[in-house]
């Protein structure tokens, strides 16, 4: 049994607390005083962290200014204050912790594990993302996915899961890829794979476009060929893959769909988190203690 | 080229008008004066019907009191008034026309074709229904369809399309059937099939329940075994397959999801309509004229 | 517990005997003396039939000359001799029994049930047929099913199961149909559906052709457009759907693949048989006894 | 246009020659004198190699003794002799070339590219391998894939493609993995994923077992739990993942299914080769010339 501290985060973290307690772990909570269920048991973050073997931070863990992301609290906890409260030998798990944080934690004799660098977490999370993207597509489209022409930019983890599901639902799916191995995989289940360079031609006649590539892919010239009735769903972190201004000027429907796993399937998300946390604990047990 | 009259209906009918005109047909419109696009060209229904070879009524065509369903109009057109306006030799197509209407039409030398009796229409429409049911499930569930335990009551056209899609999305699907041939079909693609009599056991542990059977299937005793977090989606026409009162008393989430094709995928719906109307015209050309 | 007589048949029947005995039924066997395992316990067919409540005949039951099909025996048992041996009130189950046999059985106070008229049996059996057809295709083709262009003539039970599987394996599938409702179903899972009249065009460029229609569909003119490297797999009973002479003249590879369930998946076949026999017994218990 | 030399190999290489010539390339052939079609145009390997920009060797390229694999020739061409014949600046492509060969080629101013190190080739080739494994399973099993319990050891490229297809065909599929990310992927499409350590339990009740792991996974203790009717298909290179002696002692059916892409789908294989060769040429053009 492990003593956890859950510091900040959203509805996923709260679900995670339940799951960890169901397995018999002790969980201290900090920075959740705005949540009606957890308000009473909220502890000072220094106590929560100091009393725990494993500190769970949000995903991503910190704001641009270096404070823990606290959606259910007004508390401002800097990454440095957090580091100071750590027990030597403890483990910190969170998203996009940053090299500086990781090396400082190491100096303090602690392990820091960035969950967003783990492929098992990314693949597991691609499923709720792909499902949520399909849900948005169903809401936006006046036609069924079955029989529709779908374009997916990017053949990575999310692109693969999304394209596979669209194909299975009866859509005509084209995936644009950069890596030949992603093309091979997408073709293996019946999608068409094309290189990104051909996007200008490929957008024509598409009923819906999904982007998963975290850089500008759909510039003004490419967007000019997109049908006015074709929704564009951007799954990549901001600023995303579309030229927003151009899309607006052209009157296109552009939806930035972000943080989908936590929003669309918080319980599945928390279960994925718990699984991966268990694996990190198993893997780092030896070097940390 | 055929002259159509479209009398009453919803957004599907409006889309249908566009599709028919794109193919070069003349279309007269009545009982749509509340729609901004069609307001100006709305005709008196007697003229519209009298000038046309083929009259398209809504699906279903008539209210319980025997008036044409007119969602975009306050006009009250009785089925008898409609019959009187028909050209001899013309064809009337609509949903649930009723035997009396059909025999009266025949007496006037007209053909009446109930589109809801056509299997091609029902099967084509089961696709938008199944997709919309999945969309609702995604909205309601805090978990992904992948890995969820889904129970589908009824292995008919909609049950098959729904169960097939849920299975392909990675769910663990059980379908309850009455006909052994439906069991055989559902097993053929990897779902489990059980007889309806076993529902009381099957509801336990389900993450979501869909009903497609148009009669009371889920009574109080069966509902008592349903998990409080398990949404119940009723796809059958009212009153549907759930004991509404019992569901409310038990605090269950029960959603009556009706007329899904027209709401969730009006364009696909209108395309299906147009295809089937074309087939009815081809099949009835000889006997009617 | 029921006493069965199994008279004639093939390896499926032998497997069926095992399955029935595993469930505690008594099974008398006749006309299997060439089978090493059953040779010793073979009874005279009159005794076997006379001592049983339910007589299981092969599928199909009789040769063109009216004798029971006995693949593991040289015995010639006429349908009339069989009828004479029946216990009043007993049930006869077999394939393609014929109206004459059924009415004669009724005169003797017996029930005769033609298993090939049951939709549950046909649908369950379409699965091993579809799988075996895919196995043959894999053997014949120097390319993978994934990415191949497949043409399936006929959108009935076998056509649907076959087309669905080929699509899921990543093929580009076209199904030719006669019924609009079959077209709607095939389109629902992502195949293309076309009317049979368009076959002459559709054969061009196909990598493999499957026929499921039990009448001449592929005549000389249509076959002339088939690529020399495109295998033709006929799943329909002889004479099947291809003009054999024309195919030979054109140098095409034509394979008559018959009785696939018993050959490719005898155990699944026997399990399907047992399930359906159980249902027939349940349904006919009342009227027969 | 490029001048190729194809030296040694099997039917895939011959098909590849056709495909390259169809695109207008010049292809010199060596070590194919036993093939009736290519016998006449066979050149001395030194000429063939010396006159070419790009030398295509078999996959794998060399025997354990260091000679080119020549299935259609008795010629013995050592890797050193081959190196000596190379044009400076030319490109050599083949399977498992070895570090020594690659560094010697580099010394001669040539590029050597091991096609078996390319992920795009491995993924593309996993499709014919997975299909061929399913074909073998269909031949071996007296039941259908639909409804069968399948165990796949290894969740790598081949394991994923195989498990995905078995699941889509309606099987109950468990994949054993070493990497958590492979577990996540296999679960994403509906298979169960377990760690390899649990194999002893998992083999029980399996209808068929596939191995894709290139080391001893199924030892005597694990094999003792395998049902006598459960075929074991080994897809990993010799010696493979089963203890052959133990399997024989236990009376299990063990099939070493090797080099499946070339055997089961030589044309798809040659097309994959051609695609990847094209990419290697594009990528290495600059550094080599």
Characteristic key phrases:
homotetramer; 289 residues; alpha/beta; 6-stranded parallel beta sheet; 17% strand
How does this structure look, described?
- 4 copies of one chain form a homotetramer.
- Helices cover 41% and strands 17% of the residues of chain A.
- Chain A is built from 12 helices and 12 strands.
- Chain A has helices at 11-22, 45-50, 79-85, 99-107, 119-140, 157-168, 180-188, 199-202, 220-223, 244-249, 260-264, 266-288; strands at 3-7, 26-30, 42-43, 54-56, 91-94, 111-114, 149-153, 172-177, 192-195, 208-211, 232-234, 254-256.
- In chain A, the strands form 2 sheets. A 6-stranded parallel beta sheet of chain A has the order 3-2-1-4-5-6, sandwiched between helices. A 6-stranded parallel beta sheet of chain A has the order 9-8-7-10-11-12.
- In chain A, strand 5 (91-94), helix 4 and strand 6 form a beta-alpha-beta unit.
- The first copy, chain A, starts with a strand and ends with a helix.
- Chain A binds chain C through residues 146-147, 167-171, 187-190, and chain C through 146-147, 167-171, 187-190.
């Amino acid at each position: 049994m492990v003593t956890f501290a859950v510091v900040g985060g959203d509805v996923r973290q709260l679900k995670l607390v339940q799951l960890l307690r169901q397995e018999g772990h002790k969980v201290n909570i900090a920075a959740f005083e705005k949540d009606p269920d957890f308000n009473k048991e909220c502890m000072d973050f220094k106590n929560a962290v100091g009393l725990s073997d494993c500190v769970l931070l949000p995903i991503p863990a910190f704001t641009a200014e270096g404070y823990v992301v606290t959606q259910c609290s007004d508390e401002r906890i800097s990454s440095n204050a957090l580091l100071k409260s750590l027990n030597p030998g403890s483990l910190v798990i969170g998203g996009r912790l940053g090299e500086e944080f990781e090396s400082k934690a190491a100096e303090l004799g602690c392990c820091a594990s960035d969950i967003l660098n783990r492929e098992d977490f990314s693949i597991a999370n691609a499923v709720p993302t792909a499902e949520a993207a399909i849900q948005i597509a169903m809401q936006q489209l006046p036609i069924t996915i079955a029989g529709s022409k779908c374009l997916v930019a990017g053949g990575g983890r999310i692109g693969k899961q999304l394209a596979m599901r669209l194909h299975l639902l009866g859509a005509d799916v084209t995936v644009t890829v950069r890596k030949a191995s992603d093309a091979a995989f997408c073709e293996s289940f019946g999608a068409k794979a094309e290189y990104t360079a051909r996007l200008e031609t490929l957008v024509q006649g598409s009923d819906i476009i999904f982007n998963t590539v975290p850089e500008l892919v759909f510039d003004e010239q490419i967007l000019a060929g997109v049908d006015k009735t074709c929704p564009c769903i951007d799954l990549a972190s901001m600023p995303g893959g579309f030229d927003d201004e151009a899309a607006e000027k052209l009157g296109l429907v552009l939806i930035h769909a972000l943080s989908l796993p936590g929003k669309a399937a918080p319980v599945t998300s928390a279960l994925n988190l718990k699984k991966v946390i268990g694996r990190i604990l198993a893997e780092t047990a030896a070097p940390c203690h």
